[in-house]
Amino acid sequence: MAKITPMMEQYFAIKEQYKHCLLFFRLGDFYEMFFEDAVIASKELEITLTGKDWGQEERAPMCGVPFHSADGYIARLVEKGYHVAICEQVEDPKQAKGIVKREVIRVITPGTVLDHTVLDESKNNYIMSIFGGKNGYGLSVCDVSTGEFQTTEFPTILAASRILDEVARFSPAEVVCNEAFLEHPVAKDLKERFRIAFSDVDNRMFAYATAKDTLEHHFHVSSLDGFGLAKKEIAVSAAGGLLWYLLETQKNDLEHISVLKYYTIGDFMPLDVASRRNLELTETMREKNKKGSLLSVLDETKTAMGARTLRKWVEQPLLSAAEICKRLDAVEELKNDLFLREEIKDILRTMFDFERIMGRVVYQTANARELSMLKNSIENLPLLKRTLGRCKSGYLQEIYEKLDPLENIHDLIDQAIVEDPPFSVREGGMIKPGYSDELDTYTKAKTEGKAWIEQMEEEEREKTGIKNLKIRFNKVFGYYLEVTKSNLEDVPENYIRKQTLANCERFITPELNDLAELILGSEEKIVDLEYQLFTEIRNAVAAEVERIQLCAHIISVIDALQSLAEVAEKQNYTKPVVDEGDIIDIKEGRHPVVEKAMAGQFISNDTYLDSGDTRLAIITGPNMAGKSTYMRQTALIVLMAQIGSFVPASSAHIGVVDRIFTRVGASDDLSAGQSTFMVEMTEVANILHHATPKSLLILDEIGRGTSTFDGLSIAWAVLEYIADTKHVGAKTLFATHYHELTELEGKLAGVKNYCIAVQEQGEDIIFLRKIQRGGADHSYGVQVARLAGLPPKVIKRSNQILKQLNAADITKKAKKIAVESQEQQEETVQQVNMFNMGEMQLTEELKQLDVMAMTPIEALQKLFDLQKKAKGM
């Protein structure tokens, strides 16, 4: 091979270190890509593929994008799953000896995007690490754009469900993990179910000692105990591995990641994947849109920070009644005080997303315009603090005390940065007059340089008496004094001769040189000095990152609270009573999303569940009558109450539930080889394994994916298992078309029948949408089919077949099974009681024995007698 060019030698050396990235190689005003990177980028970005000489016969494939507009191109590549390494010129080409020095300054991955034009401002962009160890699994998440950093751990037996639940909650854009986790079946499930980008990390970086060192060095601490990580080795490994990956790819100290929070399963209500999907908390099941979700109803936030916090609240309901009530009291005060709420909203409207702006400030990518946005965002903080000072509720008073007005940061930016700064930080025009005396001098030289030269020219004429003396300029000498030969005898001694011409001579003076240097270099010096001053200001702001982040968090909480108050007022919601009891008592409850869509035409219903006589409601009635809506609204009202929201009801008493489980609708997972019925059974199994007496279960049409008798048998057995307090005993709404199950009322403790009222008009039916006591005697399926538009011939034949099937009357068989089931339960209870009595007698007899006074033969005989009695129990 012929020798390759020095520039391409440099390219290959850098590319070798970043084999798995598309390398954006800075050449002048462009980022260039070569060879395979160029082929990929030209296809993905739809840009022209050209070529470049590199010392070989064939030209190297090449394509490029302008450096000043590269963000959009990079975002498109990252969105497609590529990693992009940004290779910059790290020295001034004018000062370089030979090839300009270049280094990769950052690797952009799906989980480390900072470009605000790409990120959804209403949601976090998380990167997650999952570490699999011998004793369990650790999980850590970080939002690089805001600095949020959390970690947790859980035992191996909980790994599959907990990891899936957490991935569903955080929706990470990227996952890094160790090799041990990749071997876990849940890793494959994650890739197939969530289509997440997985990235490789050196396995050694997850080692506990290395991870611990990484975290301690970053947070400048000698122990992680202060973060709640004492004896949490698995969580430390997950967090340390993630932080190492971020430091390695971002080439930045990441000072805005200033706190690591350890959280546990008990901090928030866990919601599994199915429940999040079925309840449509943040997006709809079909379109995957926010519109039509619970979040769309509750979101009246005025800032991006508030929108992200409200989303978190919806995704992680609270479990502490005290914390819930604290939020509810704050919402109540804001709801009842219209003027207070409007003042707060007006202030919030002036605020940009300064939480994410601070991320770019720390990264040193924020420009002067963003600093100006930061200043405008915090300008009204003193006014907000005064406004909050009028609040009476405990939570709002806490917020008032913690709110930092950041006045010194506002004053610094206000004194330094012009009102409407340019986008670029390399072209000047950012710094206000009066901030820097040196800059003001250069600026004055640029604008008044010509007048200064004219003034010096006039002064020199008067001093020397040479009336035709002139100050001129050329590119060779710069500024000089020109004197005709007839006046040479009047030239002062301090004039220094530079050039002799036929008719005149040219001179310079130290004063003229100083002025010339000031004028000629003023524009370049202005640009350089402005950039230097700007970076000093930006660094000063970055040094206050913890104060600003805390303030941003407080603003986000205020915004989320006022949003809930605003919705409560507009939608006529009521404050729920929330406690640690076991009652769910909802009067005139409404579905928040459906009600809003129907513009007030929604028919309300009551719900009552407890841990005793009414813990399991069997709900029957025809399709389209509203069973699913009713059950979902109950779950949503409970969830809303536990995030601290008012609820759509005339009154509500909610005993805190530890989990909400739902099994609603039909769906398959063909990619995983699971049919609709298999998915249904998998979700039911998950519920039965994890539900407790404190849980709320929403079960719709269990067993409908198989034959009638198989399905009825499964639904029956599931009901018995849930109703049994030894197994589950959870508060449950159970909708079914198996009317035979209504026979269980009076046979199983805690079971009550309810149905959806309908009114028949000939062959048609009217859905009254009201829940009432009792069971439905048939499902009106044929009538619903007629409403759906099935051909009359099909409807007629359906009625004929229905009459024949009704003659078989499997309900009678069901009644017999129910009686047998009750008799079997009573017999079991009797046997248990007899066993307990026998056990007590044996225990008492053992207590009366004087073993030390017995001979070996007597002891052996007594043991034989006791064993005989035990076998007969």
TrEMBL record:
Key word Acyltransferase present: no
Protein name: DNA mismatch repair protein MutS
Pfam families: MutS_I, MutS_II, MutS_III, MutS_IV, MutS_V
SUPFAM superfamilies recorded: DNA repair protein MutS, domain I, DNA repair protein MutS, domain II, DNA repair protein MutS, domain III, P-loop containing nucleoside triphosphate hydrolases
UniProt binding sites for ATP: G621, P622, N623, M624, A625, G626, K627, S628
Function in brief: This protein is involved in the repair of mismatches in DNA. It is possible that it carries out the mismatch recognition step. This protein has a weak ATPase activity.
Keyword annotations of the record: ATP-binding, DNA damage, DNA repair, DNA-binding, Nucleotide-binding
Domain of life: Bacteria
GO BP term (any one): mismatch repair
Coiled coil regions, renumbered to chain: none
Residue span, DNA mismatch repair proteins mutS family domain: 695-711
GO cellular component: cytosol
UniProt GO MF annotations: ATP binding; ATP-dependent DNA damage sensor activity; damaged DNA binding; mismatched DNA binding
Species whose genome carries this gene: Anaerotignum lactatifermentans DSM 14214
Record family assignment: Belongs to the DNA mismatch repair MutS family.
Keyword Membrane annotated: no
